[in-house]
């Protein structure tokens, strides 16, 4: 087994002149996972947390030794000691939370999916453009060192011309009509919760998507409980994608070309890959995380802020909008609409 230790994303160890001051908006499980990654960056300082109530904000602050706890999102957004806010809420309120922060002068890293639909995502991009503030969708897959090596191998022609991307992800979630994953009012469904990962992977390697086909199984509430998606890129390459909240689906992905393929396990934030070249033995490469994988997207944000950029070339506004439009098209094909949207 080969161990490749070449840096493949912004190095989390570089120390700047002054730490970047973070605020965390939302105190759920994903916020705790992000904090684990962020604490691996010596140039990051978590200045404040904001929640919908004082009790949850104060508990999160105690857990992570954060100096200020705000009892509302608005108070966090207005905190002058915060440079950038990580939006860790359910995606049904991403747009409102992110725009609140952007208009208050904060930069924003927003959990995936960027928004419920492309119209909301466009509103977020416009808010960032007006405020001249950084905005990025927290698609941590893009920033994992293993994925950087995948991009290099594809660019080098190691597997020839890309002709197919396959990716599946899913888990069993007990049905609860009022739960986040099944309630239409909360923009529930497998697609937006986990299906955004395979769509984003396919988008990265297929380029412009020219056709979207999909089938889905629907929960009694009308949201998708699992979906199968076929995407066609401009070159005719295909994406074969699957997601589910009904069953545990192996998290496997592959980028397949005319001269080989790259396999990824736990690919939504991988720590290794297997390269198959035509006529050669498989090559296994390992890229262990410094912490839990969230550190790389945070390091990218800090690098972009110090460079004065408003977006990341690895997860640009155009790319997030393209992914959002594909997700909209999938929901249109399978007949899933949320309150306030046209069916």
TrEMBL record:
GO terms for molecular function: nucleotide binding; oxidoreductase activity. The keyword Oxidoreductase applies. Gene3D superfamilies: Dihydrodipicolinate Reductase, domain 2, NAD(P)-binding Rossmann-like Domain. Residues 20-136 form the Gfo/Idh/MocA-like oxidoreductase N-terminal domain. Residues 148-263 form the GFO/IDH/MocA-like oxidoreductase domain. Keywords: Oxidoreductase. Belongs to the Gfo/Idh/MocA family. This is Putative dehydrogenase. It comes from Streptomonospora nanhaiensis.
């Amino acid at each position: 087994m080969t161990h490749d230790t070449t840096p493949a994303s912004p190095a989390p160890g570089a120390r700047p002149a002054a730490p970047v001051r973070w605020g965390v908006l939302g105190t759920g499980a994903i916020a705790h996972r992000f904090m684990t990654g962020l604490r691996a960056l010596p140039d990051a300082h978590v200045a404040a947390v904001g929640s919908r109530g004082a009790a949850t904000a104060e508990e999160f602050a105690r857990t992570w030794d954060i100096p200020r706890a705000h009892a509302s999102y608005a108070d966090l957004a207005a905190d002058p000691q915060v440079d950038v806010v990580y939006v860790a809420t359910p995606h049904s309120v991403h747009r409102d939370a992110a725009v609140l922060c952007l208009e208050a002068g904060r930069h924003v890293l927003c959990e995936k999916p960027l928004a419920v639909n492309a119209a909301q995502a466009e509103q977020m991009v416009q808010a960032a453009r007006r405020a001249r503030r950084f905005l990025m969708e927290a698609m941590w897959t893009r920033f994992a060192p293993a994925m950087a090596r995948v991009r290099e191998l594809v660019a080098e022609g190691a597997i020839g011309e890309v002709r197919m991307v396959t990716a599946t992800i899913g888990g069993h979630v007990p049905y609860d009509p009022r739960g986040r994953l099944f309630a239409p009012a909360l923009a529930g469904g497998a697609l937006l919760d986990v299906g955004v990962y395979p769509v984003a992977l396919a988008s990265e390697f297929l380029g412009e998507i020219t056709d979207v086909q999909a089938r889905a199984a629907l929960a009694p509430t009308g949201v998708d409980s699992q979906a199968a998606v076929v995407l066609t890129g401009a070159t005719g390459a295909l994406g074969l994608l699957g997601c589910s909240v009904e069953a545990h689906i192996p998290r496997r992905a592959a980028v397949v070309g005319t001269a080989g393929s790259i396999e990824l396990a736990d690919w939504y934030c991988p720590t290794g890959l297997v390269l198959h070249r035509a006529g050669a033995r498989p090559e296994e490469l390992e890229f262990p995380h410094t912490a839990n994988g969230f550190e790389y997207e945070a390091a990218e944000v800090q690098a972009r802020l110090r460079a004065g950029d408003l977006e990341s070339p690895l997860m640009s506004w155009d790319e997030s909008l393209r992914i959002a439009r594909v997700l909209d098209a999938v929901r249109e094909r399978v007949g899933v609409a949320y309150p306030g949207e046209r069916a």
